[in-house]
């Protein structure tokens, strides 16, 4: 009895955290496997990343209720990296990305990720979602996906037509469609039924259907946990000197960090407990990725789906996320052969559903009505990721966001008041920069040369050197025409 009281005093929320950990484990299991298969790596490596995210990152400080693991948002980038550099080099990339995250956290750079344009982040997620949907339609149709993002989208109609005459492809499509249907309808089932997480129920029902009906669909290949772990060879680190590989490391670092910290901000809004310490969370994510890199596993990020499930299940401390990692470890160690029964199209359905949730159609509609510039940034980022690649697409989005901000920051209003007699009043307000200089000069030079002008600059918040010089030169030219000198009025 005394021991129980001591345990309760040390872990007052153990019951709530234990229950929440089981829910998160059941949500994480199919997602870990699905992300790994979609990334072109052994299914067990997704479990390894989930285990490290739970136990290693889960024990560290930062965000108490946020859950980390392999994320659908990194699938496209990982697949491209494995295809270009090979699976052995993936560990080196993840290890170096983790080291950069730790360095950024120690340098207290975590808070600056909050300054990234929300439209760029949403555009990044939308682009990833579109590529995931297009890419996963092929395993859902038992077909081979093209390499490029545009190729995946362009080839979808042909893949559907080819599937019409193929029994195996139709069976695969039926399993994927059934999985998506279960995910969409699960929230309408009775509360007792919803105690089982939707992703687990969808995959479980798809597995039972495929087994009971003896459907000719592909299933997950199992190698065993220890057989899948392959630490990167020393030769892989020598390849880091290449520009292309360094760019991939930077892409892994920035995208994983941004996704984790934006997820932390979202999770903070779901509970009233301790707030996220962004720099410490960045260090924790980096430490987890360094361990994943050593094990040759997938990169990790904080995942909003698992984190939200953790909060909604009643978790109170980080013990829930640590225990969820323990349950993943026990499953991977004791029941790995269960994975061999999971149909690949069921995992494709899980990821198509996850990808669709990354595309913010409702938010884009609102943005188009209220902030068309932000909507343009979001759409351009998404399209660039699909058309070019993940890294270049994000860079294009960031560049466009900077240009848009600079353009808006240079907003200036010129108001001309001409009463018909006396001097013409010209009032400038806002921010006068070289970006708007041609428009300002065109309006001023159109004023009558034979009338005196009073140019009021007192409403300007900012007047850069180029504008000041140009306005003074215009005033000198206008005054030289024989009229009364232009009167410049500046702020007191």
TrEMBL record:
It is found in: Membrane. The keyword Cell division does not apply. The chain crosses the membrane at residues 18-38, 85-107, 119-138, 167-186, 198-220, 240-267, 326-356, 376-403. Keywords: Membrane, Transmembrane, Transmembrane helix. It comes from the Bacteria. It is a multi-pass membrane protein. The keyword Membrane applies. Residues 14-380 form the SLC26A/SulP transporter domain. It holds the Pfam family Sulfate_transp. InterPro entries: SLC26A/SulP_dom, SLC26A/SulP_fam. Its main location: membrane. This is Sulfate transporter.
């Amino acid at each position: 009895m005394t021991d129980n009281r001591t345990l309760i005093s040390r872990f007052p929320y153990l019951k709530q955290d234990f229950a929440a950990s089981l829910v998160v484990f059941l949500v994480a299991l199919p997602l870990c496997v699905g992300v790994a298969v979609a990334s072109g790596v052994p299914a067990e490596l997704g479990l390894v990343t989930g285990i490290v995210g739970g136990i290693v990152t889960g024990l560290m400080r930062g965000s108490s209720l946020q859950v980390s693991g392999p994320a659908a948002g990194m699938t496209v980038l990982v697949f491209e990296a494995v295809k270009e550099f090979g699976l052995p080099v993936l560990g080196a990339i993840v290890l170096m990305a983790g080291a950069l995250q730790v360095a950024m956290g120690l340098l207290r750079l975590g808070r600056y990720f909050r300054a990234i344009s929300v439209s760029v982040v949403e555009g990044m997620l939308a682009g990833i979602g579109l590529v995931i949907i297009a890419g996963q339609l092929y395993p859902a149709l038992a077909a081979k996906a093209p390499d490029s993002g545009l190729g995946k989208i362009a080839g979808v109609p042909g893949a559907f037509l080819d599937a019409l005459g193929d029994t195996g492809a139709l069976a695969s499509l039926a399993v994927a469609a059934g999985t998506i249907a279960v995910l969409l309808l699960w929230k309408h089932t009775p509360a007792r039924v919803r105690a089982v997480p939707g992703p687990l129920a969808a995959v479980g029902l798809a597995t039972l259907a495929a087994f009971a009906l003896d459907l000719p669909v592909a299933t997950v290949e199992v190698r065993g946990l220890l057989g899948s772990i392959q630490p990167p060879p020393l030769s892989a680190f020598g390849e880091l000197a290449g520009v292309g590989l360094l760019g991939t490391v930077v892409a892994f670092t920035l995208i994983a960090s941004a996704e984790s910290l934006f997820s932390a901000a979202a999770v903070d809004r779901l509970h009233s407990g301790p707030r996220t310490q962004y720099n410490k969370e960045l260090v924790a994510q980096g430490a987890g990725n360094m361990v994943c890199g050593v094990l040759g596993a997938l990169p990790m990020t904080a995942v909003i789906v698992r984190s939200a499930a953790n909060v909604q299940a009643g978790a109170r401390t980080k013990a829930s996320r640590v225990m969820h990692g323990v349950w993943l470890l026990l499953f991977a160690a004791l029941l790995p052969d269960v994975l061999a029964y999971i149909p690949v199209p069921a995992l494709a359905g899980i990821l198509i559903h996850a990808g669709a949730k990354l595309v913010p159609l409702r938010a884009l509609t609102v943005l188009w009505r209220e902030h068309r510039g932000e909507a343009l940034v979001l759409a351009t980022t998404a399209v660039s990721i699909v058309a070019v690649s993940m890294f270049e697409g994000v860079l294009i989005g960031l560049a466009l966001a900077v240009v848009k901000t600079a353009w808006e920051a240079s907003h200036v209003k010129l108001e001309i008041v001409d009463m018909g007699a006396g001097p013409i009043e010209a009032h400038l307000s806002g921010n006068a920069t070289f970006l708007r200089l041609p428009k300002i000069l065109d309006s001023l030079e159109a004023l009558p040369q034979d009338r005196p002008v009073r140019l009021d600059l007192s409403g300007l918040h900012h007047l850069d050197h180029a504008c000041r010089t140009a306005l003074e030169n215009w005033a000198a030219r206008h005054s030289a025409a024989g009229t009364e000198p232009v009167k410049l009025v500046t702020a007191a």
